[in-house]
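User: Predict the structure for this protein chain, please.
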Amino acid sequence: MPIRQLSETMINQIAAGEVIERPASVVKELVENALDAGASRVEISTAGGGLNLIRVTDDGSGIPEQELALAIARHCTSKLSDDVHDIRSLGFRGEALPSIGSVARLSIRSRTASGDSAAEIGIDGGRVLPVKPAAANRGTTVEVRDLFFTTPARLKFMKGERAESSATSDVVKRIAIAFPAVRFTLAGADRSTLELPATSDTPEGRLARVAQVMGKDFPENAIAIDAMRDGVHLAGHVSIPSYTRANALQQYAYVNGRPVRDKLITGAIRGAFADVLPRDRHAVTVLFLSLDPSTVDVNVHPAKADVRFRDPGLVRGLIVGAIREALAGAGIRAATTGAAGMMAAFRPGAAPYSHPGPANGHRSYEAAYHASGSGGFDPLRSAQRPLDMGEARPHRNGFADNEQAAFDTGPLASADARAGTAEPAEPLLGMVLGAARAQVHENYIVAQTRDSLVIVDQHAAHERLVYEALKNALHSRAVPSQMLLLPEIVDLPEEDAERLAMHSQTLAKFGLGLERFGPGAVAVRETPSMLGETNVQQLVRDLADEIADNDTVETLKERLDRIAATMACHGSVRSGRLLKAEEMNALLRQMEATPGSGTCNHGRPTYIELKLADIERLFGRR
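Assistant: Here is the predicted structure, written as structure tokens:
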């Protein structure tokens, strides 16, 4: 086949394949255009999940009538100066509108502040329609109908209407967080409406917008982040370790106001929370990176969701360091959702607690009930039956003296007496975890503050304390190493060997001694003593891969931290050990002074706090 010039329509359709993946991509491009035009109000309407209709209306500056034809032409934009590295707007490529128009029926109706009337232009599957007069308020309305009608094969890859609507909602929420002073409205054909009223472009206003998007629980369980390093500023909020999600969908990241999904940022967040979260749980974050536009490349992909930093090690180190410092400075806090779960469990009619299943050797209460062979509720066999309904004594009065004698255990000591000491000092009640009052089930410490009741898992709490002590000892000095009888030679690509050699001094601090061994290999002479017998080849290759990705050597540090966590688990106070009151209070004070002690090494909460007001509501006092 001879070489030929592609038609403009086909070029736009090819571009649309990169820019326009689904209806949510269209909404993203159109909303970004509205924000670049200075809109303070953006309204989005969809039908058929966005495949039938997408309408975006704004009150921005509008497009002059004489520029409408240029607006739908490829590579025409008002947002880019002569320097492609100085990008200060959300859009800049000039591809979105012609790409959309090549695969849909597009119309643009706009009016400027100084215009006497509005004008409208359209594209029907790549065919440009003439400009004509129209009636409209100041701003722009872009309407997209029959998306992908010119490329019906793309429709086969679309998900259901509900899934496409959900993706659109997620896009709007991600953008809205970065622009709290703008009002957003998203309406669908199912009459569902997402309304995000404008707040303000202040820290308080940004947090209020985050609460609109993520719910009021997040601000109550969040820690503020504010750090600067070498011209890069990081701000936002991260959740406390005991407030997590099952996936990373609620991790929002922004670079110079642009929503991004960057693996470096995601990896940095995961690294910052590495030893305070379970492996299958994820932190909730809203992070804003601000830096010189010339030090970040947002032109990696037409969708502009990926970025490349000139100094990725600086950005990763800033994120990890700032989050860890914030977690350490926030002190000890329990998630408010823990108390809410406890409240729900205590309410009448709450569903009975069920263990995960037979895999862990337990059965749920429901399973145990049905296994009894009863087809329904049997009052004579119920564990909650009245005392006068026992099968052996059906006619006796269950509240008679001789019946109650079996339950008489003598005078009941106070909780403080059971704890083994006299009344704790009044100042302890003002502490975060209060004063220890009792130990129940030989594992849980019950403490009292001035306005709450605290239940502490003694093993989980002490495990965290021991772990933090081990980590401090581990990283306050060079890690002890063991000399290999024969050096281990690891063959690597030349560039990987060079990267490892450049980080050899840092690796030596962690007990790994290596040096160049020819053009494409390194010789490992020492390994960290804590690792014992380890696969040196795999360790070195993992480090080389991480340095190539992130320019860090966190893999080795994380392995050492995992060993310290295992040692802490075996060296902490075991469940079933009776503690004296002074021991319990000492544990509480150490928890208050130790960063991250709100969760154990495995990410489980170490304590739950129930406010006195909640307890009073349980008993109908409020």
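Residues 161-178 form the longest helix (18 residues).
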